[in-house]
Amino acid sequence: MLKKRDVVRRVLQGRPVRASPEGTAFAPANIALCKYWGKRDEELNLPVTSSLSVSLGSLGSRVSLTLAEGADVVELNGTVLGADTPFTKRATAFLDLFRPDPSARFRLSAENTIPTAAGFASSASGFAALVLALDRLFGWGLDRKSLSILARLGSGSACRSVHEGFVEWHAGQAADGMDSCAERLDATWPDLRMGLLVVSDEEKSIGSRPAMKHTVETSPLYTAWPAKVEKDLAALKDAIRRRDFPMLGRTAESNALAMHATMIAAWPPVLYWLPDSVHAMQRIRALRDKELELYFTMDAGPNLKLLFEEKDTDAVTQAFPEVEVVAPFANP
Ligand code: PMV
Predict the structure, then answer these.
(1) pTM across the whole model
(2) Is the CB–ligand 1 distance for residue 114 below 6 Å?
(3) Measured between alpha carbons, how far is 71 from 105 in angstroms, rounded to an integer?
(4) From the CB of 156, is ligand 1 less than 6 Å away?
């Protein structure tokens, strides 16, 4: 079994190290329209299927990194975190893979422009920004493919956050994952809008990592998932090519619901939905019945991400005044 460290060695082989005083980088958050759900390799975060996302423009993470003396220091949104917080532990374990010598220490400062407190995952943008910052700090000059592979080692979905716009993560087949990386689709959709709808900002009962593993191991519906993804990926790429919004929305919503169905059928079940999540789903359905082209997607949590087009922004914000509207292609 290959370890993360072996992959890092392969990616950085022969790279010169020209350390600069600081490496700073931004990476956008991304929301999958066709989800990544299930790993074929737990250590390297290699997925069972490919997936497709849209990056959230200026919403994401900015990371600054310097080499430090004594101990690692991890700061999030202006506050230095304790060494035993989950955020610090995850960040320093990842940094362990890149220390130029075992005694080297880092000062990492991360700022999220995506509302973390509002329950939207920032680990994808965080790990992608961290890898980009490492590349700048050490002057590796890696290409996007290599950056995507390294970001995946932090969190699977992070491999998509090294790109803007529509992004496909190719599952790949190689045991070392050198072909499992994200690629930007040559397409834009200026009128596409996403609405972040917070149902609950409480810490979720079970993280996506254990939930994914538990679903693969116990859900009888999981065997149907790869075929569903194959169909949805083709439909989404077609919808993007033809700018067919109803097809994009329908496919994304159906894909998210199918992912949740696999979790609900696990034992014990994983049910992220709260009564307000279901209420929002039903309102979206009722609005659609009144000819409003509004769809949603959901990740491993109770919050919804609404999908609509620019022309319907007023109708959507009237129905959901609390929604935060994002224009993923506002600054192409
Ligand atoms: O990258 P992870 O381990 O946080 O998993 C992300 C899983 C989903 O958000 C549910 C789906 C996806 O493709 O982003």
Answers:
(1) 0.97
(2) no
(3) 6
(4) yes
